[in-house]
Amino acid sequence: MRVYLHPDLQLSGCLLTDTALGTQYTVTADTAWLLRSVAKDGRVDSIVQAATRHYGISRDEAVRSLYAVIGFLDSIGGVVIYETGIAASVLLFINRSGRRRYMPSFSGYWRMTAQAYGFIMLVLTAVLLVLAVIAHVPLYCSLLPVLVIASCAIHEAGHIICIHRFGISSYLLAGIGYAAVAYVGARMRQERIIAASGPGIAVVVYLAIAVIANNPLLHYVCIAIAAVHSMSLLPLFADGKTLWRKQ
To answer: What is the C-alpha separation between 66 and 57, in angstroms, rounded?
Structure first.
């Protein structure tokens, strides 16, 4: 397994700087050593072995220390973890070349949405437009990608609005086909409300569209989209796991 630091993070001594967001974190000398090891190599086994030699500690202690650092980095969207292999290397290249973080502002939200879904929406819409010309597919079908991707944007907006109402520190994360909100410092009740707010607002909006839609295809597509978002409340998915977590 490999661990990669986000390229926006720069370490100088014991000061970790997020160049994209302008935030700084003071870390201990041991944490700084682990961060430099991650930046230099990235292989978890190699870092653990180096830590056991450098500090004279057991492998279990080195693993716990490394994963504590990884947990901190993950809370601010500053780390990427991948298994080794050709497929994983391709995914890593896509992620590292396209992943960005934004401030939780109005402009940050739109930039996150464009980063995550803009290219995919344009490609799918273009394909359906070509099919409308060649295969005589109804022209309005080219709007289906817009409906689906707009639902994802509304989903994330629900999370962001709820987090903002609670006054919780957060970051917006975006990659190719990927958008999420990372936050820290929320209480259990707040986490559950935040988890439910994303799927909840998407379901409400698309059921409302389904009710007022005159087109039968639009009606059923909106119902299907609402059903998919409601499934994210199940404990199989990230929002559902947070919603139904016992402690």
So the answer is: 12
